[in-house]
Every structure is written in C-alpha cells, then in structure tokens.
Amino acid sequence: MPDRPVPLTVLAVCGLGMGTSLILRMTCETVLQRLGVEARVDNTDLSTAKSQSPDVLVGQGMHMDDLAGVATVNVVVDDFVDDQALEARLRPALEEAGWL
C-alpha cells in the first residue's frame, strides 16, 4: 500500500462544480463505502480542481486532459449516478495503485 495518509482523498469534478459534481461525489461515496475504502470525497469545478492534490480524481473524459497530473489516479465516468459503472472503473484503478 502506498505511503499515503488515511483516508484516501477523492475529488469529484465537473465543469462548473455545482450540481453534477455533488451527485458524482455521492455516487463515489456509495461505491467507496461498498468497497470498504475509507475516503474523504470532495467535489469541485474544473478550475479549482487544478489547484488541488487528491489521490483520486473522478470526472468526465472531456476534462481529463485539463486535469493531467493533478491526481495519482484518474477515473473517467460517463454517467454520474451509475454506481455500478463507477465501481467497475474505480475498483481496478484502486487495485493497480495499491489502495484496494
């Protein structure tokens, strides 16, 4: 496991950082709880995300080029409420990074 403070820090990002990032945050929290991962999940807009340093960044693919290097792990989502799809992408990313 990487030498990281617990809990894992996760940032849910959308273009404007309003409703959709909050929805994505709640979906992330559901998935992380189901996976048994202790995490602090925050949500924000694209511009603010660039100044953050989370362990994991979750957002739409169209924003990931702008967010390159912000987090150790980037997870692309297509549907902000589909917890099964998020888990299918988040689980292997966390396993590969050694956090699961």
Automatic annotation (TrEMBL):
Q: Which residues form the signal peptide?
A: none
Q: One biological-process term from Gene Ontology?
A: phosphoenolpyruvate-dependent sugar phosphotransferase system
* Gene Ontology MF: a single term: protein-N(PI)-phosphohistidine-sugar phosphotransferase activity
UniProt keyword Transcription present: no
Domain Phosphotransferase system EIIB component type 2/3, which positions?
A: 10-87
Record has Glycoprotein as a keyword: no
Q: Name one Pfam family in it.
A: PTS_IIB
- Provide the transmembrane region boundaries: 6-24
What keywords tag this UniProt record? Membrane, Sugar transport, Transferase, Transmembrane, Transmembrane helix, Transport
Which ranges of the sequence are coiled-coil?
A: none
**Name of the protein in its database record:** PTS sugar transporter subunit IIB
Provide the species name. Answer: Cellulomonas hominis
